[in-house]
């Protein structure tokens, strides 16, 4: 699945990605220019292996006319803000609009309050973020890329939700009698579901394209 | 008195009438009015360049720079071949138009420029929105973080000032990421160049430093020079940056919607399809277009891709284009992108290469082992290709004018 990381500059998107894909955190991270990329596979409860392509976008993306290239084909988005900087939370609404304008209609979105280790500097209350997420029909979690808390959970949760959504769509389309699926023009957007026959290196078996 | 403090008036008439003094004053004194002066490419990261381009090149450059009037065309031609770090500041200054052709005009021009920069700093401090200043401060700390030179004064202050002035004066009060790498590297290369042209323990340490220690040396150097001197270096580095970006619409790399980035990325896609069709097809088959890999190349003018010692010769060539063919500078940047793809595109033709592997290859090109001579060869090939494209374009236009097709 293609998942994009979006949110204001310096909220910790690149470190969330490196924590999830390489279990690394860097205090010396540079600003992201353009887009960077990493992959990781996870297992679901029902034994499927989900391969995620995660795109880390620049925090200033919403100022740019280039976003469609990055959002095209994304089935999930982690919308990240910094719990110690209120402005990054205020801008979440604009990021949501950005997603609605450029991304797929049914993209799964999760609001992520990062830097939860900075308890003494917290300015965004958990309840406020929860309420915002509820109002907008998106899920919510607080994470810390520094101490790794909830990072795994955030990515696993959104990937599982995407998987469930895709599975439901698949069942619906089968029930509707179509049975066939169209491959995506853009390989970056392909949905890859790999059977968990404990061989990650085996060629991915394409079950369904979104 | 600091070893970088100014020498007295020199015999070329460089007088200290700027309130800062000029970074060039002593530079020119040491480099160009001393008969024993010679480019000794035996130090640090210039070794490879010395092998590829022995003393004939620096002498050409010296002749072009030393006369009563600078031969800008000749300096630009030399810059295409890389000028070495000691000559970099004066070369960029000449090619950027900061230093007038007539030596005698320089003190007044520099004094005016320094004063103008001080006013611009004050105006930016008053008028720039606090949120923009915050974004700049955040990015200053994150500029070349491993080098640790912009995480503390005085270079953090200098870089923040440059970015504020640019945002206020050139980007409608907005700040766009990418320019901090450009400005930061221009500042330190400029400082290193000026200091290497003088004598003294800091300059010697810098010249002797291995690449890994280079950054520590430049940090120590910046901390030891008088603030007035650093401010002069900052003002002149800013002028070079501003002049480079004024050419060929490159300011559009750092305005909010980044129109020039989009145009240049489109040009990369078109040229790739025309000139490297197999590679273009291989990338298209994997859904890879230029924004996914060339955005950073263009938005940082390769500052993120190459080590500082290698970046110098490439920026020398950019300044040469700025002086000789300013309106084709954007085309040259695109030519550099195409040349990189030509050099490193072969692995991408493998039929079984995955999307992930292809993107990883493009975003992490193996450029760490490059030396300055590699950079000079790279820019020479890109410039030759750009010139051929330009001539072909002119030819097509001339033919179309000579033989207009009849109206249907």
UniProtKB/TrEMBL annotation, chain A:
GO cellular component: endomembrane system
Bilayer disposition of the protein: Lipid-anchor
Gene3D superfamilies: P-loop containing nucleotide triphosphate hydrolases (3.40.50.300)
SUPFAM superfamilies: P-loop containing nucleoside triphosphate hydrolases
Record keywords: GTP-binding, Lipoprotein, Membrane, Nucleotide-binding, Prenylation
Main localisation: membrane
GO molecular function: GTP binding; GTPase activity
Subcellular location as annotated: Endomembrane system
PANTHER family: DRAB11-RELATED
Family under the similarity heading: Belongs to the small GTPase superfamily. Rab family.
Protein name: Ras-like protein YPTC6
Automatic annotation (TrEMBL), chain B:
Domain Rab-GAP TBC residues, every copy: 82-322
InterPro entries with a match to the protein in the record: Rab-GAP-TBC_dom, Rab-GAP_TBC_sf
Domain of life where this protein originates: Eukaryota
Molecular function GO labels: GTPase activator activity
Record SMART domains: TBC (SM00164)
UniProt protein name: Rab-GAP TBC domain-containing protein
